[in-house]
Design goal:
Layout (H helix, E strand, L loop, with lengths): L5 H7 L1 H9 L5 H6 L3 H30 L5 H23 L2 H26 L3 H14 L1 H39 L5 H11 L2 H14 L11 H56 L5 H22 L3 H40 L13
Helix pairs in contact: 2-4, 2-6, 4-5, 4-6, 4-7, 4-8, 5-6, 8-10, 9-11, 10-11, 11-12, 11-13, 12-13
Length: about 350
């Protein structure tokens, strides 16, 4: 590219870089939230940059007219650009994420074509055209600053909505867990702690917007903006901790339920073994195996008390395997005893000295 065109390109192409990376800068969960009405909030960011480009385009066209340069193709491209911006707004209003993305790609192509055409028709007049673009942007500084305020306010609103909806979704799942008998007291305590910061983040957000007139909130270095960012990061960490507490709560409940069930099953198994022993069956091996199962269950409880959830699960799995082996041994022992008794009864029922008829042949 001719170096004389770099400055104009930097201004006219600002939307290319900004729009092209707007979604990439968002994390995956935020991309999903941009669907529907949230896409309209994001449109405010894009619209600001399209307005910068529109002002720059008009300045270039006005200058082309002044120097008698052919500006017909520039006019066509500007009209196409404005049309696509309208389509972008409609897609945002409709919550059509796919059309929004496609239209942004079209806008980038139009800007590229406008840049090339401006380079072609202005030639040596590029330096003066660059000055006209700068002047036009300066003349519209108050207007553009007001758009930055809208962008920053929309960003705050979007984050507060995400805050509210995330907590609502978590509380709904917590209610469901509580209905199933899960002790969710720790989870609710953390939710209350996060909720207490809701008003604070709203107030600090408004203060940050006020202090950052004409500056993107993420780049603003005022004290108010930094306080907002610090609190936002603190809340993010709170949500991470909340997820960990919720996960551990569910695991603790599941393990406790597993231990209780295991103890009940073990008690019933011991009752069956005791009855077999009372009938004279040798259950020494089975009893030892069930003692091992009980030791594993006790170990699982100890690890649960220490909040070693993985260790507790491992002990429960080992207890299950040991119990299956013990029950197999018990069945084999009972079957063996029954077979021995059946053979004994068969022998006792046959008189001594019985002649085997087979010996006659």
């Amino acid at each position: 590219m001719n170096t004389k065109m770099l400055a104009i390109a930097a201004i006219l192409m600002v939307v290319t870089a900004t729009i092209g990376t707007a979604f990439a800068a968002q994390d995956q969960s935020l991309r999903e939230e941009l669907r529907g009405k949230r896409l309209l909030h994001h449109y405010n960011v894009v619209y600001l940059h399209t307005e910068q480009v529109r002002i720059g385009m008009e300045a270039v066209i006005d200058y082309a007219k002044e120097v008698k340069a052919d500006h017909s193709e520039l006019e066509v491209l500007k009209n196409n650009f404005n049309s696509d911006v309208n389509t972008l707004e409609r897609a945002a209003n409709d919550g059509d994420f796919d059309e929004f993305q496609t239209t942004m790609e079209g806008i980038r192509d139009i800007i590229q074509d406008f840049r090339s055409e401006a380079h072609s028709v202005l030639g040596e007049n590029v330096p003066e055209a660059r000055e006209r673009v700068k002047e036009a942007l300066e003349d519209n500084e108050d207007y553009l600053n007001s758009l930055w305020d809208d962008v920053n306010s929309a960003r705050i609103e979007l984050e507060l909505e995400a805050f509210d909806e995330t907590l609502d979704a978590i509380e709904e799942r917590v209610d469901e867990a509580e209905d199933r008998g899960v002790d969710v007291s720790e989870v609710r305590a953390k939710i209350d702690e996060i909720n207490d910061k809701r008003d604070d983040i709203s107030v600090k957000g408004e203060a940050a917007v006020t202090s950052c007139t004409g500056i993107r909130l993420g780049l603003c270095e005022t004290t108010e903006a930094q306080e907002y960012r610090d609190l936002r990061e603190e809340i993010k960490e709170d949500f991470v901790e909340l997820r960990e507490i919720a996960r551990d709560t569910i695991r603790k409940h599941a393990i406790t339920t597993g231990i209780d069930a295991s103890q009940t099953i073990l008690e019933r198994a011991r009752e069956g073994v005791t009855k077999a022993e009372e009938r004279g069956i040798d259950v020494t091996t089975v009893t030892a195996q069930l003692d091992e199962v009980e030791d594993l269950i006790d170990s699982a409880q100890a690890k649960l008390d220490e909040k070693d959830y993985e260790g507790a699960l491992d002990e429960l799995r080992a207890a299950r395997t040991a119990f299956v082996d013990a029950m197999q041994e018990f069945r084999d022992t009972v079957r063996s005893d029954l077979e021995s008794r059946r053979q004994a009864r068969s022998t006792e029922g046959r008189p001594n000295g019985t002649i085997d008829g087979g010996g006659l042949i």
